[in-house]
Task: inverse folding
């Protein structure tokens, strides 16, 4: 089958080194975040466990959780993060900050999952599987794609300054912007999961976390 029928696959193959680099940044951040869990004091672990258990209790009781508000907050958070990457990617000097954001996102995911597993063991794995993993299987690739777009645009910026081809730069800008806008749709889908489906799945797992917390 002609590879032109798979534009995303062709795009990723053409720019594979950039995708690999940014994926490694995320992966390194995830590992670093998981390692940070070990630096928490016992008091910090207990305090965080209380907050998580209070959240699990709210989910278990089926009250106090507004799915629409959760969806809206998730959309705003993801769009702010995406928008920041897009803005930083408009300049060469902003590109290192794009990479820093990718690393930081990995740290946040790694720390969250690592903490749940360290405190709740297999129940933590199960809770992370329904509350953290699914949306990040969309969010992280979306951020990777936009970050690669930022990298490519920065390269076009350098080339445009050297050879002074404004038309080429304009085309690169619109491709970069179109890529970011497409990822908005993906992030909205992830927010829908976080707001409406994830709470229902967490409700099934919450009693297990509460039973673990009761014996900590």
Result:
């Amino acid at each position: 089958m002609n590879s032109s029928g798979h534009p995303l696959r062709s795009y990723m193959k053409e720019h594979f080194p950039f995708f690999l680099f940014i994926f490694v940044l995320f992966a390194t951040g995830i590992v670093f975040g998981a390692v940070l869990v070990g630096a928490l004091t016992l008091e910090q672990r207990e305090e965080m466990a209380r907050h998580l258990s209070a959240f699990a209790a709210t989910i278990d009781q089926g009250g106090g959780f507004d799915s629409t508000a959760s969806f809206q907050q998730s959309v705003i958070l993801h769009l702010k993060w995406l928008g920041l990457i897009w803005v930083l990617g408009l300049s060469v000097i902003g590109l290192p900050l794009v990479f820093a954001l990718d690393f930081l996102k990995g740290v946040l995911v790694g720390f969250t999952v690592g903490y749940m597993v360290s405190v709740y063991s297999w129940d933590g794995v199960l809770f992370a599987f329904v509350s953290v993993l699914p949306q990040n299987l969309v969010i992280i690739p979306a951020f990777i794609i936009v970050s690669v777009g930022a990298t490519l645009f920065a390269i076009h910026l350098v080339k445009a300054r050297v050879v002074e081809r404004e038309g080429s730069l304009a085309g690169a800008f619109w491709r970069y912007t179109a890529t970011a806008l497409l990822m908005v749709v993906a992030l909205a889908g992830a927010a829908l999961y976080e707001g409406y489906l994830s709470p229902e799945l967490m409700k099934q797992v919450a009693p297990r976390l509460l039973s673990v917390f009761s014996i900590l």
About this structure: The radius of gyration is 20 Å.
